[in-house]
Every structure is written in C-alpha cells, then in structure tokens.
Amino acid sequence: MPRYFCENCGFTDLLDKNLYFCPNCGDPLTIIYNDGELEANFSGLGVWRYSSVLPVDPDKKVSLNEGNTPLYKSLRIGNEVKELYIKNEGMNPTGSFKDRGMTVAITRAVERKFKSVICASTGNTAASLAIYASRAGIKGYVVVPDGAVALGKMAQARAAGAHIIKVRGNFDLALEMVKNFARGSNDAYLVNSVNPFRIEGQKTVAYEIIEEIGEPDWITIPVGNAGNITALWKGLNELKRLGKIKNLPKLLGVQAAGASPIVKAFNSNSETIEPVTSPSTIATAIKIGNPASWRRALKSVRESGGAMIGVSDDLIVKAQYLLSSKEGIFVEPASAASIAGFLNAARSNLIRKDDVVVSIVTGNGLKDPDSVNRFESFETTVESEESLLYSVIAQ
Ligand code: AN7
Question: How far is the CA of 90 from the centre of ligand 1 (A)?
Fold first, then answer.
C-alpha cells in the first residue's frame, strides 16, 4: 500500500489518516510506493492518464480535464542552447499548474468526506481551490494577503463563491495561520502543497514532459513555497524507477532575488534556510520568505546536480515581455522567472550550448493583467484615417 513518508526523518504511516506534517519533525509528508505499486499503465490524456501512479480512486475523480498542457519549441529566445521547450502550465483549467495537484487533493477531500477545504495563497492556489471546490460541491475557504493578490486570481476565487479571508500581512503569515488551524481542527481539509496529495497530482508534469520529448538535460522551474519543484523531482525519480528514463535532468530552481532564501542556502552550502522576513518582488505569486518545502527543494536540486538561482525583477519583466512578444506565450511574472533563470544560466554557461532545456511556465498572463503596464507600449490614439495611416507606416 502507498503510505506517508517523511523524507527528513523516515517516519511512515498508513494513508487511512488525514496527515500533512510529520508528527516527529514537522516536515511536510510525501507519499511513497513499494515496488510493484507503481505501474506504468497509462491511458487517456492529462493528469488522470497517470492514475496508475496516483493514490486516489480515478472513478471518483473531481476533474476539469487538467494537465495535457502544450509543450512548445522555442523559436527565438532559445538560440543559445540546442533546444528550448516551454511547457505552458498556464493552459490548465484555472490557468495555473495548481490544478494538477488540486484535482487529486479535492478528490481525496471528497473520499475523506470533507465538506470544506482551506488554503493560504498568493493567488493561484486560491483560484484553483475555489473552482475545484465548486466543482465538488463543497465549501472553499482561501486565506490571502490583503492587497497582494493579482486581479485575475481574486476574480476567479470570487466567481466560484469561495469565502475569501484577508490577512494584514504576507503569505507566510497566512500559511502559518492555516497550518495552525489544520493542526487543531478537522473541519476543513488543508490543500496547500504541504498536502502530499497535491504533490502527487503535480508530479504528473514530469510524466508528460518525458513522454513528449524524452530526457531533457535541464528543467527550469519557478520556486515559491517549493511544492512544485518537489513534485517535479518526485515524478522524475518515479520515471527512473519505472525504467522510462535513464538519466535524470538537472533542475534549475528559480526564485525572485527579493524572496530567495533557498538560493542563499544553496549558494552557501547550508543545510538550512534563513527565512526572509520581508520578501519583495513584483512576481507576487512567489513572494514567499519562508517556503514550507525548502528542505525538499534543496535536496532535489542538489541530487540533480543542478542549481538554485535568483533573478531580479527587472529581468523577470524582460523575460515576460520576450516570451509574449517573441514566442506568443503570455505568462504571469512568476512564470517568467523560469525564463529569466534560463537566460541567466545560458549566458553564464551553467546551461551549455548543446543542452536540451525545458522551461516550465506556471501561470497564465491573464491572471495578472496589470503586469503588462511595465512593458514598452505601442499605443496611440487616432482621430482620423490619415492619422491611422501615418501611425502604421511611421513604425
Ligand atoms: C504562477 O498560489 O504559492 O514553489 O499560493 O502561482 O510550488 O510554491 C503559488 C505559487 C510558481 C511557485 N508560479 O510554486 C499560491 C502559490 C506560479 C505560482 C509558483 C506559484 P511553488
């Protein structure tokens, strides 16, 4: 039987309880499988194609057809490497990668007969929770930092009828609050990425990438609370166990420079992080100073032989604009961090000329429409046809 497992201290327990954190050391739990329990018996499309490697009953799934996201070959911004692919997770049902984890976590919530689900969020988890809770016919509660969530994400949470609880503080405070809530109450199922079922759903991005292009040399991914990079590495390792890949790719975890505690720990070879008390970045989705899964992120990146790097807000904006204007892929700022990290690493020769790279972009540009106000603008107002003519030929 699959079971809970603590990668930090080795604690293990059966899945017949609702656990998130290790009762011994407090780290977020993982779900592990014995040999023979992981089966590469894949059919259909999207997250549920991989139900033979998921710990919930696919017949009871709460799904909006998540996963099966487009993987594009870069035409213009990846010239410094052999091939750059962009995996557009912004094409999931609510516009972010969170849906891969949410479909599994909400299915688990329903299996366990919860009537409510809760999360802390910088926005995308809230939007995904809200929409999937409405699909499941249960109540959604989202705890968000007041005034710090992008417009599109708030709109989705509102539209889905979720209870929106604002806190005067940042995401880290909101997460602390819901963690304490979940320790003391079984009234609502916690579906942040500290929930091991979320990680199970999100690992499917690794399965899709490998089925589509085989083994890349590098995968770049934005890092906030560090659940997604944990899930990616878990998926890749399972694929190796299943004999689907020989060599594991290197991971490039990318944080915004103003919210980069894991980068600092990586660079100083430290075994622990120093939380950033006042994280700051325009990429609000990853404005996180005390990531819950930091230990698993550090371990993943180190095992892979990859790296953690920090990127400036300035480069994030440039990467976001490059991606939309040169490749036709419109993403939100946190996702552009993945591309900014690629650009940095290719320039510094960390990623080499003959490497095949996949950059995972995590959220749709429509999530944060205000972010495009930072781009160079080509807007003019015309009052006559002549004026229209001249504004076009003058370019
Ligand atoms: C677009 O929604 O943390 O490292 O509460 O929305 O797994 O946290 C969002 C995170 C990257 C970082 N890209 O992923 C939330 C939240 C986008 C995101 C991340 C987030 P993790």
Answer: 12
Tokens of 323: 């991606």
Q: How far, in Å, from the CA of 108 to the mean position of ligand 1?
A: 21
CB 283 less than 6 A from any atom of ligand 1: no
Q: How much is the pLDDT for 225?
A: 98
Please state the domain count of the chain.
Answer: 1
Q: Residue 168 has what DSSP assignment?
A: S
For residue 364, the domain's CATH number is 3.40.50.1100
Ligand 1 site, residue 285, Cβ cutoff 6 A:
yes
pLDDT for 376 beyond 90 = no
Look-up of token digits 């080499």: 352
Is 261 a member of any domain?
Answer: yes
Is ligand 1 within 6 A of the CB of residue 7?
Answer: no
What confidence category does residue 199 fall into, taking pLDDT thresholds of 50, 70 and 90? Answer: very high
Residue 167 lies in a domain: no
Determine what percent of the chain is predicted with pLDDT higher than 90.
Answer: 94
Print the domain residue range for 219.
71-93+198-374
For residue 264, is it within any domain?
yes
3-state helix, strand, coil in the chain (%, to 5): 40, 15, 40
Q: From ligand 1's centre to the CA of 143, what distance in Å?
A: 15
Residue 288 alpha carbon, nearest atom of ligand 1: 3
Instruction: Find the 363 Cα to ligand 1 centroid distance in Å.
Output: 9
CA of 124 to the centre of ligand 1 (A): 7
Q: How far apart are CA 255 and CA 290, in angstroms?
A: 12
Give the nearest ligand 1 atom to 126 CA: 2
What DSSP string runs through 315-375?
A: HHHHHHHHHHHHHS--B-HHHHHHHHHHHHHHHTTSS-TT-EEEEEE-BBGGG-GGGGGGS
Write the single-letter amino acid at 204: T
Give the position of tokens 């194609």. Answer: 49
- Residue 317 falls within a domain, yes or no? yes
pTM of the model as a whole: 0.98
Specify the pLDDT at position 395.
58
